[in-house]
Amino acid sequence: MSDSIDAAVRRLLDEREIIGLAVRYCQAVDARDYDALHDVFVADATADLAGIEEVGIEAIIARCSRVLDPCNATQHLVGNHLVTLDGDTATAQCEVQAQHVRRGVDGGSTFTLGGRYRDQVTRTPAGWRITHRDLETSWVTGNPAVLG
C-alpha cells in the first residue's frame, strides 16, 4: 500500500476506536459494569457531568453508580459521532439520549435526557482513552426524581 493509503486506513481505525469509547461507555453503565470504564477513561480523567465536576476514574465511577444504581433500567444511545484527530490526541463528540426507569417514584417512573458528550481523548499504550468528558444537556423530559 502507498503511504497515503496507509495513513487513511490508520485514521479510519483510530476514528472507529474512538467512537467505540462512547459505545463501550454506554454498554458499561447500562449493564452496571463500572469496572469496564477503566478501559474507557484514563486513571486521572476528569468529567463535567451536567454541571458537576469529577476528577479521576474512581470519582466518575462513583458518580455513575450513585445516579444509575437506584434505577430499574437505563438505556444510553449515542449517534452522530464526529472525531477530529490531531496526532495522538483527538476530540470527539456525539449526541446522547439517556432513558432512565425507576418504578414506584411519585410523579412518574421515567426520566429522559438528550444532549451531547464532548470528549478529549489520547492514545495510550492500551489504546485510545478519554481524558475529559463534558455532558452538555440539551433537553429533559419526565420525572427528575427518578435519578434520586
Within the CATH hierarchy, at the fold level, what is the topology?
A: Nuclear Transport Factor 2, Chain: A
Total domain modules: 1
Classified by CATH, the class is Alpha Beta
Number of DSSP-assigned strands? 6
What global shape is seen? Answer: elongated
Q: How much helix, percentage-wise, in residues?
A: 25-40%
- Class derived from helix and strand content: alpha+beta
What is the H-and-E element order?
HEEHEEEE
Radius of gyration (CA) equals 16 Å
**Total count of helical runs of at least 4 residues:** 2
Task: Give unreliable regions as ranges.
Answer: none
What percentage of amino acids are in beta strands?
Answer: over 45%
CATH architecture: Roll
Q: Characterize the biggest β-sheet.
A: 6 strands, mixed
Task: Describe the 3D structure.
The protein is of the alpha+beta class. The protein is 28% helix and 48% strand. The chain has a single domain (3-147), classed as Nuclear Transport Factor 2, Chain: A, CATH 3.10.450. Strands 2-1-6-5-4-3 form a 6-stranded mixed sheet, with helices on one face. The radius of gyration is 16 Å and the shape is elongated. It starts with a helix and ends in a 6-residue tail after the last strand. The relative contact order is 0.19.
Defining key terms:
six-stranded mixed beta sheet, Nuclear Transport Factor 2, Chain: A, alpha+beta, 28% helix, 148 residues
